[in-house]
Amino acid sequence: MLRKCTRAKLYKTTSISFNILISLVSIALSVLVLEGCVRFYFSNKLNYDFEMWRYAKELKAPLPDSVLPFHHKSEKSGLYYGVELKTNSRGLRDIEYLTPKPKGVKRVLMLGDSFTLGWGVPFEDTFSKQLERLIFYRFSGYQVVNMGTGNYNSSMEVELFKQKGLALEPDIVVLMYYINDTEPTPEIDGFSYKLMRHIYLPAYTNSKLKQLGMMNSSDDWLQAYYKKNYKSDSPGFEKAKYSINELIRITSEKNIRLLIVNIPDLRRLKTYPFSFATELPQGLAVQNSIPFLDLLQSLQEYDGQVLWVSKDDSHMNQFANRITAEVIFEKMLKENMLR
Fold first, then answer.
1. Comparing C-alpha atoms, which of 167, 110, 169, 162 is closest to residue 135?
2. Which pLDDT value is given to residue 304?
């Protein structure tokens, strides 16, 4: 009798384990099928989230640095949003630059995020390269270096300047400030990074959940999201403020001319509700007698989507990059920064 009970318990345990295994396998297969469907769907159309995921997966590498947790891989290239992104040996989307700096050469370093990188825009049409050509017609010996990196905030941009930018011996630094520069620096842990790097579905789900969280119950969800990041007790706000002050200090000590440029959000240009965000970079610039340029005044006359890279992506297109280069050049002339 005891033997029969033992066999029954063993059979029941084995049956439960088998059912659990079947369920897990079924879930795994369902996820793989869904992953394949999602990839197939987005691979046949330009989608911002999918292209950004591919860019992060293929061109970025994690770093053992809490301030600068990732940067571009060196000498890599890929096609994103129909445009080639190619990095040099320093991981910058630019040509190679000699160090020490050759005699007679002057350098302008452009610090920023995906706007400065030139997301969705051919390399020669980025505002860095258009600015370089504008300077070339009036002044000799200038090189404009594009240090833009997608998904960077001000803290990461300044850290990249310290780690790689100073070695390029800049004469001028331009900090391209964007409204989301007060977002917290992402924390990269091994498991989730590898999962989201190799499987798109978690990355896509995480992106959509973040967007839903931004919307909450506000009539203007974007304004509510930004206001949250600009509260004085926001960790990202304090870090951005500290980093910009640090950049001001370093450039002053090394006699490097500095220009701070504000890039407005192109989704609300006509009735711009984000002036509270501009107050941070502008206030620090005025406080430290640093030239400041707000691109809103030059871009506000246009309908937002005329400046977008696509109807679903509000990054600057070639036209907006051209306006940006021209206005920065005019500001540099006015401030006598080009010598």
1. 110
2. 80
Q: Which CATH architecture has domain 45-334?
A: 3-Layer(aba) Sandwich (3.40)
Whether the CB-CB separation of 97 and 103 falls below 8 Å is answered with no
Alpha-carbon distance of 332 to 329, in angstroms, equals 5
| 221 to 92, 216, 273, 280: CA distances (angstroms) | 34, 7, 12, 21
Q: What is the largest CA-CA distance in the chain?
A: 101
Burial class (CB in 10 A: 0-12, 13-18, 19+), 149: buried
Q: Which two tokens stand for residue 162?
A: 């310290």
Which residues are CB-contacts of 336 (< 8 A; sequence separation ≥ 6)? none
Q: What is the pLDDT of residues 233-285, one digit of tens each?
A: 888 999 999 999 999 999 999 999 999 999 999 998 988 999 999 999 999 99
> For tokens 């297109």, what's the residue?
317
Q: pTM of the predicted model, to two decimals?
A: 0.85
Pair 166, 97: CB distance under 8 Å: no
- Other C-beta atoms closer than 10 Å to the C-beta of 72 total 23
Q: Which residue has the tokens 């220009």?
A: 259
Residue-wise pLDDT for 92-129, tens only, equals 999 999 999 999 999 999 999 999 999 999 999 999 99
Domain spans in the chain, listed from the N-terminal domain onward = 1-44, 45-334
Q: Is the dihedral of CA 243, 164, 65, 210 positive or negative?
A: positive
What are the CB-based long-range contacts (under 8 Å, 24+) for 281-286? 281/175, 281/177, 281/244, 284/241, 284/244, 284/245, 284/248, 284/260, 285/260
Alpha carbon distances (Å) from 248 to 255, 282, 291: 10, 13, 11
Other beta carbons within 10 angstroms of residue 70's beta carbon come to 20
